[in-house]
Amino acid sequence: MKPVFKRILLKLSGEALMGAEDYGIDPKVIGALANEIIEVSELGVQIGLVIGGGNIFRGVGLARSGMDRATADHMGMLATVMNALALQDALEKRGVTARVMSALKINEICEDYIRRRALRHLEKNRIAIFAAGTGNPFFTTDSAAALRAIEIGADLLLKATKVDGIYSSDPKFNPDAKRYEHISFDQVLQEKLAVMDATAIALCRDYKMPLRIYNMTRHGDLKRLMYGESLGTLVTV
Predict the structure, then answer these.
(1) Is 182 a member of any domain?
(2) Which pLDDT tens digit goes with each residue over 20-56?
């Protein structure tokens, strides 16, 4: 049985790397993530990754405390580079070739993001990790994930979360919250559902990039999604 997707973009939050820790990277968590990604890569699926930096630094949070927003956002971008390097290390220790491509020039430790080079890495079945967001302040890593998914021609944008999809309200506080199996981008925007930021949702809608929200804590779900199983919530036009 062949996977139904040839190329995907997987968005991971920085907070996901913390595990049970309050800060930083839990080696067990990043190792488990690397194993899941490798399982999918071995199916022949080309994988691009975008990782947030919230486990190390959140630009928005410090900006609220009085720091210049552009400066805070650039610091947040550097945090994503640290996470990307950590994931690259975890993947390569398991025998998989991975490349970190940064939207900011940091040539001593990773490549510049160049679209054609990224496509070449993917075609050679290397895992491409896109770091430093879009390279611009005021844009989130969600927006970067949407942008990179469109640029590399991904078949699907996946956002890994700790919940099993999109709900009408927070299921932690509302036991009657409804989980959507399928929803439109317009409905997400109209109901202000906390899935991704509005810029990312609008980008996906305008370029018809399907988005699926799934639970990353359930081992094997990522692989099952590659075979077309309907897990989490699918967002389309």
Answers:
(1) yes
(2) 778 899 999 999 999 999 999 999 999 999 999 999 9
